[in-house]
Write a structure and sequence with these properties.
Length: about 325
């Protein structure tokens, strides 16, 4: 008799046990193993995807989309991949909203194979999405070497004028053949095989609407979820419930939580004005979202808000998808 099939059948029928004569001990063992296996795959509904945000340009304006491909290296929508474009100084060192807050006002989009740059007070700049004859630059992102295809002099002049820089800025694009950065070089909690292009550390950041609502209850002026630049926004859950989610299933995508997102001065940049306050909401977060003492070596004094996930199974995520927690 096939005891494994018998065991699974028993479990599926509310764990009713069917005793068999002969080999009963083996059947009991199989039942135990099969039940533990089923429990490990148990799905519990924990929320719903309310927003998907792709940020093609690091520190640039996020694009809200209804559907995105979820790859190991992050989200993709049409021709745009999350944080695959980067502003650099002429020596290749990255420039983010921490140094240039007005970057949050720059929208990088695509239209029929053309790349479009837009910003307040600027004429739209269009350029080819692929510029294979442009030089490849050696860049530095958080102390790590990575390449980027230069997007040309017109883009450089556009950015330099918009950012009112005293030095020149250039736009670079990470291409599929280039070697990505190892997340573990930035944060040791990531495995050595996890890689990203220009994100700070992880390929997917998730945050709940309820957590933002909880924070707004402590602020004099509300902030929006865009302030925290997540990829996946979840509704229909409690505040900070996402802190406890280890394995998630969304559509056919499986995600694994690695660590919390330690927040910095960038959260004080208003995404609507590009003005940095250097105060809120960071000061309030520091007052009630510090890590446990046992994790101080990881997060230092950075308050925790949102969670970094890696992609264990690729696929499509859509707004409205149910978010399931897998396992206990």
């Amino acid at each position: 008799m096939d005891f494994e099939k018998l065991s699974i059948a028993a479990i599926a029928q509310n764990k009713k046990l069917y005793l068999v004569i002969g080999g009963a001990g083996a059947a009991v063992v199989c039942l135990g193993l099969a039940w533990r296996s089923l429990r490990s795959r148990e799905k519990v509904r924990v929320g719903v995807v309310s927003q998907l945000l792709v940020h093609p340009l690091k520190s640039g304006k996020g694009i809200s989309v209804a559907l995105a491909e979820c790859h190991h290296i992050g989200l993709k929508h049409g021709e745009l991949r999350d944080r695959h474009w980067l502003v650099v100084k002429e020596d290749g060192h990255m420039v983010t909203g921490r140094q240039q807050p007005r970057l949050v006002l720059v929208a990088l989009t695509s239209d029929g194979g053309r790349l479009c740059l837009n910003g307040p007070g600027m004429e739209e700049l269009q350029m080819p999405l692929q510029q294979p004859h442009n030089p490849i630059m050696d860049c530095r992102v958080f102390g790590t070497d990575i390449q980027g295809r230069d997007c040309g002099d017109e883009a450089a002049r556009w950015l330099t004028r918009f950012l009112e820089g005293e030095i020149g800025y250039r736009l670079v694009h990470f291409e599929p053949h280039m070697e990505p950065r190892k997340s573990a070089d930035q944060e040791k909690l990531f495995s050595q095989d996890e890689k990203v292009a220009y994100p700070d550390v992880g390929p997917v950041m998730l945050l709940s609407e309820a957590s933002v609502g909880d924070l707004n209850g402590k602020l004099q002026k509300d902030v929006t979820v865009e302030r925290f630049r997540p990829n996946i926004v979840v509704s229909d859950c409690n505040a900070f419930e996402e802190d406890s989610w280890t394995e998630l299933l969304i559509g056919d995508v499986r995600l694994h939580r690695v660590m919390s997102c330690g927040r910095c001065i960038f959260t004080t940049v208003d995404p609507e004005t590009g003005i940095i306050s250097r105060k809120e909401p960071l000061d309030t977060l520091k007052g009630y979202r510090q890590c446990q003492p046992s994790e101080a070596e990881i997060y230092k004094k950075s308050p925790l808000f949102g969670q970094f996930f890696t992609v264990k199974k690729t696929g499509i995520i859509q707004v409205g998808d149910v978010v399931y927690r897998i396992g206990r």
